[in-house]
Amino acid sequence: MTPRIRSILHALGFLALLAILYLVSLKLDIPGGQPGAVLGAYGHQLLLDIGNAITLAVSLNLILGIAGQFSLGHAGFVAAGAYTAAMISGIAFPPILRFLTISPFHLSTPVAFQLIMILGMLAGTLIAAILGLLVGLPTLRLRGDYLAIATLGFGEILAVFFQNFTWDGNHVFGGSTGLSLSSLRNEWISNQPDPDAALPAAVQAFLDRPDYLVGSFAVFGVTLLTIYIVHNIKYATSGRALLAIREDTIASESVGVASTRYKVAAFVIGAALAGLAGGLIAHHKSLVNPESFRFMRSIEIVAMVILGGQGSITGSILAAIALTLLPEVLRSYIPEQIMSANTVEKWRMVIYSLFIILAMLFRPQGIFGRYEISDLFRWLFKRTRSVSAGPSPAPQTGGLPAQTTIQSAAAQTPLLIASNITMQFGGLKAIDNFSLTLLPGELVGLIGPNGAGKTTAFNVLTSVYRPTAGQIIIAGKPTRRLKPHAISQLGVARTFQNIRLFANLSVLDNVQIAQHAHHKQGIPSAILRRPAFYREEDESRRNALAYLQLFNLGHLADELANSLSYGDQRRLEIARALATRPRILCLDEPAAGMNPTEKRELMEMIRRIRDQFSGGGLTILLIEHDMKVIMGICERILVLDYGKTIATGTPEEIRNNPAVIEAYLGASAKHS
Amino acid sequence: MSYILQNLIIALNDGASYALIALGYTMVYGVLRLINFAHGDVFMIGAFIGAYTARYLNPPTDANPSPDQTILHAFLGILVAMLVCGVVGYLIERLAYRPLRKSPKLSALITAIGVSLLIEYLAQIKWSIAGMSFFGPDPERYQPIIGSGKSIPFFQQHLGISVVPKDLIVLTATTITLVALYVLVKHTRMGKAMRAVSQNADAARLMGINIDRTISFTFILGSMLAAIGGCLWGLNRNQCTPLMGLIPGLKAFVAAVIGGIGNIPGAAMGGLILGLIETFVSSIQYHNAAVLSPYKDAIAFIILILVLLVKPEGIFGKAVPEKV
């Protein structure tokens, strides 16, 4: 399925659903307190609640589902948006109104009212986004449960603040009763629009309808906007980066994804959308009180996302509808004659919580898992795969992005200089005074017994660890302050000893993510879906397929990475590393677990990679246990033992070096 | 001086409760890597059971509608509460968490939240069994120990502070519990098994440790500590409500994080530290008004965020570098 077809399917599905909800809510919207209109008004309100619930669930899904950052404080952002909107439409209202109705603007009062409301909601969005940034920047460094608790704490702090903040002895935010907007609303509705206002008819018609601003139209409009934004972020470079961060943050950094920036961006966008929804909720509920934005509200939103399936927008929408309707449906099934209304309310919540527990017990991955509505279509109309399953063509570099060729003058300039690196963990010096210089096109081996510090050396070179002492210069830049993604962007790619693929993403996605740093279309372009975005998307897909073909993985493009065989996973990891278009490739025990035939093929492949990539100038640094592999292909070898470099030289020199023999075979080997 | 001492007494009292709840959080997190959100509700159940035991042993009469209980009855109340909460803790683990042990962590966390909600709402419904009513939305009276509310003259005269016997009862009971727990965790086979499972569950299994039994035991132990905490809370405040576990539960979790989650002595210390900071910050005077006291509930979370940012592994925890 191409990205375009998928987008069309999603648009059709989501639009149809929202249109149904919107039309039903219009049908139920019977104005004015006529007798008999109770059910209609109630149903109308319920549908608006559903719309807002969808907005909140989908916006949290961006943070929790797609980026995998467990935020338990989403209601805090809703509160920020709601209180800001209420404050601007309430406290700040008279001066702004006066300002808008005086000479240069001369707006009629109802128009000014509406402008102020819009202003309030936009300000709420902005405040929520700023809060998102302030909370996200420090806390997103935290992992898993710690982040959950920190965001939970943030939500509680905000609720306590709104409830208790006083100035001159007055509760600025209305204390625990909250702020009421009903007086404002009534005043506004009672004011008939001014026919003399010099506004275009269309604008006037829009402003005449209260429901356009805070009713069904606005609620479902914002819902649609949220789904649109989150969907477009998900199916783009940015979305793949976020999913990669969720799957494995370290691996995502290793292929050039600036994980912190992406996490914060997702957090801010999610927070802003929640703030916008908050402003709408404030207006159509006419009341903002701290109780409605506490911990429990956050939990409800989290439950929607998890129940729907982490990362599945379709799932979030359905779960939001189900969990909002469930208590209401239960209400109509428990007759009030048997017990008091209050007890019925509690029983409803008992059933609600039982439902959540049982849903998790029987389907822990959520209703939709990681699937979307388009996957449902695909499943219904199972067609032959677009990628041919026949014998894949002979691997070749054709179709790969242009490789930067090395100028002969630059050929002897070292790409990487590491001098006197020491890495200490507590009392253990994992590497001690390690130095290494890599020239373009070299094939260097790093060997040593278990625990000699080989992988630590890799981790230091790629900035996963910050060395205790020493300096590393890559392509002329000192790397001490650089994050791993910046190292990747300098041209250093790596694989991991215990394969770190993005396990629950497709094989194709794994390679596409690695081209991340070479993509120019950012989040705004992804949201707007400009033609340049599609061009880049197509190109990235083509390139990724070419890399896969090169490693005979083309026919597996649509499979999940963790469904691949061990050998294929190893090859995919190398393909992924190469897709970052590196100048230095670090391979951490690529031959581990391979049989002799596979090892021979691997050696062949490594040589081929070196000759074909980076204009024949790709530098390869290889960690390996297997002497045959190392001796067979490396031009230069470093031997580590207990963190110390005990020998360097050509394979021939290393083979006869007594210190090496002692390290590998023990002291007695010398005498025998 | 007396001001500081007086606040210290309050702080130690709150801190003791936080510590007792925090221990349950930390032990469960240690063996299961799960934030057991329902833990605060087990604490609530403990308080109610303690109150009902007193009501059964020392029923209110028309002449004396709100009697006080003897210290022996209070002790019996704690024992019954421990028993009931132990069973509740076992059931929660067995029915809700064990089936999810291999599932994504988030699913388990949502389940924990679901269990917490379930208990809270069940407790807000009035249950009538054999003519007696249990739980329900109205607060239940927790009988105080006879004479435990009168200020002790010794402290009043010599230090100028008001210390009541129940303060001392809470502190003594907490100290005894903590020492007993320390001995149990450090010097028994089961304690060793718990520590092993929290280090590495798979390795512990290979060494022949029965993981399921160890985890069940941890839940039972944690729930019993929560029961003690709940009863002491009740003895101190003479009242329990269905939602009483919510805020102390969250704060106790903060205490566990401050002490380094998974770290047992850390949780106890974290509870005391939290009690101290909370009490002293909210007693700060500005223009003769305790300006910060309305924000008391926020203080714990501000500390939490600060601790997480500066030393995420907690004050007494050790940083574990992620293995790559």
Could you give a quick summary of the protein structure above?
The complex is a heterodimer of chains A (672) and B (324). Chain A is α/β, with parallel strands linked by helices.
Helical/strand content category of chain A: alpha/beta
Distance between the termini of chain B: 53 Å
Q: What coarse outline of chain A follows from CA principal-axis ratios?
A: elongated
Mean pLDDT across all residues of chain B, rounded?
Answer: 88
Largest sheet of chain A, described in full? 6 strands, mixed
Q: Give the overall silhouette of chain B.
A: globular
Strand content of chain B: under 5%
Total E-strand runs of chain B: 4
Largest interface: A-B, 53 and 46 residues
Largest sheet of chain B: 2 strands, antiparallel
Proportion of strand residues of chain A = 5-15%
Blueprint of the fold:
The complex is a heterodimer of chains A (672) and B (324).
Chain A: H1 3-28, H2 38-66, H3 74-89, H4 93-101, H5 109-139, H6 144-164, E1 166-167, E2 170-171, E3 179-180, H7 182-190, H8 201-208, H9 210-213, H10 216-234, H11 237-247, H12 249-254, H13 259-285, E4 287-288, H14 295-308, H15 313-333, H16 341-362, H17 373-380, E5 416-425, E6 428-438, E7 443-447, H18 454-461, E8 469-474, E9 477-478, H19 484-489, E10 492-494, H20 507-514, H21 523-528, H22 531-550, H23 566-579, E11 584-588, H24 596-612, E12 619-623, H25 627-633, E13 636-641, E14 644-649, H26 651-655, H27 658-665, H28 668-671
Parallel strand pairs in A: 7-12, 7-13, 10-11, 11-12
Antiparallel strand pairs in A: 1-2, 3-4, 5-6, 5-8, 8-9, 13-14
Helix pairs in contact in A: 1-2, 1-10, 2-10, 2-13, 2-14, 2-15, 3-5, 3-6, 3-13, 4-5, 5-13, 10-13, 11-13, 11-20, 14-15, 15-16, 20-22, 20-23, 22-23
Chain B: H1 2-32, H2 39-57, H3 71-97, H4 105-123, E1 127-129, E2 132-134, E3 140-141, H5 153-158, H6 165-187, H7 189-199, H8 201-206, H9 211-237, E4 239-240, H10 246-258, H11 264-282, H12 296-310
Antiparallel strand pairs in B: 1-2, 3-4
